[in-house]
Amino acid sequence: QLEIPPGYSLHWTGEYEHLQRARQRLQLIVPLTLAVVVVLLYLSFRNMVEPMIVLGTVPFSLLGGVWLLYLLDMPFSIAVAIGFLALIGAATEFGIIMLVYLNEAIQRLKPSNPAELRQAVQAGALLRVRPKAMTVLVILGGLLPILAGAGVGSEGMRPIAVPLVGGMISAPLVSMIPIPALYMVTCKRKYKTNRYESP
Fold first, then answer.
1. What CA–CA distance (Å, rounded) separates 60 from 46?
2. Hey, is 195 helix, strand or coil?
3. What pLDDT, in 10s, does the model give residues 131-170?
4. pTM of whole model > 0.70?
5. How many Å apart are CA 160 and CA 165, to the nearest integer?
6. Where are the beta strands (DSSP E) in 25-138?
7. Contacts of 44 (CB under 8 A, 6+ apart)
8. DSSP-assigned letter for residue 197
């Protein structure tokens, strides 16, 4: 609606321009990073089922960060994107460690039927409750002062902390409930003649 005289032009700059450049970089970096993560997970687990369980649950782990961002009415920015990238790393780590504990429980208890498999998965998942709670409390203990602070530098640090604080509510729940359930569903297919073959 603005009529610009001949010889004049408008150009958006500042944080908007930085966000556009960062978005172009992220469109290249994020898929490349996910590809590297998939390769590393495959080399770790020697199958594609468990990496897909971890990566399939990561988007649900981010919901806490999205909701807290919405509740605080904070716009998406480069710092927020960095916070979400850090949250993706933490959620992936939660899932990987959970699967390691579940595999160890299966190898230790050697279930021979679906009922014993369920008990083994529960035993492995329960071993992660206390360490996970301690990890979440340590992360929240470090980030809540940043979130509540109003000193020098807080404007730059708060957008990074918001996704992580919100994600520390959803990410542990996702790793404690859906991941063991999906793991148990996939393990039931490994039964042959009522005997579980450990990975």
1. 25
2. strand
3. 889 989 998 898 888 888 777 667 778 888 999 999 998 9
4. yes
5. 9
6. none
7. 96
8. -
